Amino acid sequence: MENRLKTGISNITTLMEFVLLGFSDIPNLHWTLFGIFLVIYLTILMCNSIIILVTRIDSALQTPMYFFLGNLSFLEICYVTVTMPRMLMDLLTQKGNISFFACAAQMFFFLTFGSSECLLLTVMAYDRYMAICNPLQYLLIMNHKVCVQLVTVSWISVFPFVIGQTCQIFSLPFCGSNTINHFFCDIPPVLKLACGDTLVNEFVVYVIAVAIVMVPFLLIVVSYGKIISSILKLSSAKGRAKAFSTCSSHLIVVVLFYGTATINYTQLKSNQSEGVGKLISLFFTVLIPTLNPIIYTLRNKDITVALRKLLTKILI
């Protein structure tokens, strides 16, 4: 009877708390990693905040494209804030304890912001399609009201999927180890801790991934197929170059984001090493949000000019 009681208490403890291993396998680099990730996090916050600021105050940037870019920057700030402060705290304290509900909340918000980014990137592709393939009616169709509605849909429409996915995973029995070999509560490492057959759960993950990741990606591919076809029909080489330049930044971001997200969420319980899984996750949770502002500013003359204007105002 006493042994059963101890077993019951042990199971309850496991259910109430997880331990994120993070980068505990390389303890000698804790302070180095903390310094690197802190600089990266502050850089992401600063760069995206600057983009939000210039797209709000510069009159030349009051267009649908920059409205969506400002929203993407805000989404990026939310996206990295779900994982990076927690990761920094764990590196600082060298403790990875996270409660069951905090882990569920982290997964919920991470999936929410990640899924919303998928849809917002699709909206941005549609915006470029309308601007290049239907320029005469572009501003009429893509008015401010429509832009706000598209952004709102990008945020709200993911909630049913994300709530269902999070509840489904955290309703599974976790009767074994409570150690998550990752730096945040993501689907693949948490699913590995579940007891029994998780085939149905993995299938649901695939279905939702198709709905939120692959369908938007296919819509982006179709949009860019039509965009490229329209650009190639332009007689002016200068016009073709200008049209391509307005799309290139977005296309690079799409390839990076969708590529790594697809690799991460189609592996699940595969033979892929946990170290490789962490590396892929670092790529799309840390590196890509760092690169996005750089890609959009360096390859966009309007943003560059707006930044120079802002810098001049500050210095004078």
Automatic annotation (TrEMBL):
Keyword Glycoprotein: no
Domain G-protein coupled receptors family 1 profile: 47-296
This protein's GO CC annotations: plasma membrane
Transmembrane segments: 31-54, 66-86, 98-126, 146-163, 203-222, 243-259, 279-298
Entry coiled-coil feature ranges: none
Subcellular localization(s) per the UniProt record: Cell membrane
KW Signal (keyword) present: no
Protein name: Olfactory receptor
Species, as recorded: Puma concolor (Mountain lion)
